[in-house]
Write a structure and sequence with these properties.
Elements (H helix, E strand, L loop, with lengths): L2 H12 L8 E7 L5 E7 L2 E3 L2 E7 L3 H8 L2 E8 L4 E12 L6 H13 L2 H6 L29 E15 L6 E7 L5 E6 L2
Bound molecules: flavin mononucleotide.
Flavin mononucleotide binds next to strand 2, strand 4 and helix 2.
């Protein structure tokens, strides 16, 4: 596990009772070049990748199909530490040829609350309220996920970590080399 991954694991372990510790901000770029940022819930790892969920009809999915480079901002408020995790994001919907990722999609689906699952048969995100729902019965956790349910899988390439608790403040850039090994470099904050 790299330094920054251990840091996230330690932060989550320390803040298990605080669900907001798993809320991150995901920045994408739209097809016309406009930035867009929104909150998503961290749902776990897939190897080195970070896993989130979304609706296949959402704007962010269109964004990453056009421009897979994204950045996630993870702010651990108690520790006064932020991590900016940049990399490429892929969407895993029902048509994913990667069996391991499709199996992970089903596993994550099983962990979702009824309230969250119900959202995936609602009307299209961001569209007027008079546009119809696509279903009335919430898909069960132990059945197949609906086609609107996607994992967002972020394969990290660079991490910029800033810590304001220590004096002097610390900033560390984590990057991978050609062999895939992570290296950390301290820089001026
Ligand atoms: C606390 C919180 C958690 C959220 N978690 C998610 C999430 O895990 N996945 C998601 O797609 N949207 C989540 N949302 C909604 C998004 O922030 C956003 O409004 C929605 O996905 C539409 O974004 P888009 O139009 O840019 O695709 C969450 C919002 C809040 C306030």
């Amino acid at each position: 596990m790299s330094d920054w991954q251990s840091t996230i694991a330690a932060q989550l372990a320390a803040e298990t009772r605080d669900p907001t510790a798993r809320w991150v901000q995901l920045g994408t770029v739209s097809a016309d070049g406009a930035p867009a940022v929104r909150t998503v819930v961290f749902r776990g790892h897939h190897g080195e990748a970070l896993v989130f969920t979304t609706d296949t009809r959402s704007a962010k999915l269109r964004h990453i199909r056009h421009e897979p480079r994204v950045e996630v901002l993870w702010n651990f408020a108690q520790s006064r530490m932020q991590l900016r995790i940049a990399g490429k994001m892929v969407a895993v919907a029902g048509d994913c040829p990667d069996a391991a990722l499709e199996s992970r999609r089903r596993d994550v689906w099983r962990t979702l609350s009824e309230e969250v699952r119900a959202g995936f048969i609602g009307g299209p995100p961001g569209r007027p309220l008079d546009e119809p729902r696509i279903g009335t019965v919430t898909p069960p956790a132990d059945g197949p996920p609906p086609a609107t349910f996607a994992l967002l899988v972020l394969w990290p390439e660079r991490v910029d970590q800033v810590e304001l608790a220590p004096q002097p403040h610390r900033r560390t850039l984590h990057a991978r080399d050609a062999a895939g090994q992570w290296h950390a470099r301290a820089v001026h904050p």
